[in-house]
Design brief:
This protein is of the alpha/beta class. The strands form 2 sheets. A 4-stranded parallel sheet has the order 1-8-2-7, sandwiched between helices. Strands 3-6-4-5 form a 4-stranded parallel sheet, sandwiched between helices.
């Protein structure tokens, strides 16, 4: 019988990683919604990394995450799309906040084809490419993803309940839940759904909703 956990913050993500769980990062505004929309338009390889200035109480390594994202891009013969913060402002500020992750990408030999703001389902509309590797470097969702990944998670994915480019209603949440179930079943792992910030009620409620779908799909009976 499998186990489903729901937790919050990078610290909860790190603990889930240490257990070897499949970890679902829920950062509704906006990292996981941005990621879901990129999945909709054909960019399914998603990485998250802590931004340079994020204060995270657990081990993270954005440079290594950047290297892994870049290495996958090189392997696939494609490039990296960097999504970063601040949401407003210019690319120079977004590059500055992601310098460690960028250093990792460049050390892999990969190229960054675009630097975009983390604004949810509108972000993929800013670029017309498919098959690229997406690297989201953000203080909340990115840091939680980073913490789960670096601390040994079987897999780390994103999930949202917000409308994306290709999904509406409960479709984003259901797609997120089914991705987690498929991975956990294939890898023989448990699932932890992480609300990226305990200060964000939308993340907490969304994590609970995705968890309920995982239960209703019979994961705990596997």
């Amino acid at each position: 019988m499998r186990v489903l956990n729901i937790t919050c913050n990078a610290s909860g993500a790190a603990e889930a990683g240490k257990r070897g769980d499949v970890v679902v990062i829920v950062d509704v505004i906006d990292m996981s919604t941005t990621a879901e929309s990129f999945i909709d338009v054909g960019n399914s390889e998603i990485f998250g990394a802590s931004s340079d200035g994020a204060k995270v109480p657990v081990r993270v390594d954005p440079e290594l995450i950047g290297y892994r994202a870049g290495s996958l891009a090189v392997q696939k013969g494609t490039n990296v799309i960097l999504v970063s913060e601040p949401r407003t402002g210019d690319d120079e500020a977004r590059i500055s906040s992601a310098s460690l992750a960028i250093r990792g990408v460049l050390s892999s030999g990969a190229k960054i084809c675009a630097v975009l703001p983390n604004i949810g389902w509108e972000t993929p509309k800013m670029i017309d490419v498919k098959g690229e590797v997406l690297l989201c470097t953000t203080a909340s969702g990115g840091s939680s993803f980073d913490a789960a990944y670096i601390n040994g998670a079987s897999a780390v994915i994103t999930g949202t309940v917000a409308r994306s480019i290709g999904k509406k209603g409960d479709e984003p949440a259901r797609a997120s839940a089914l991705r987690a179930i498929e991975l956990a079943t294939r890898l023989g792992a448990n699932i932890t759904v992480v609300a990226a910030s305990s200060n964000s009620i939308e993340d907490i409620l969304a994590a609970e909703f995705i968890g309920k779908i995982i239960v209703s799909e019979g994961f705990l009976l596997i």
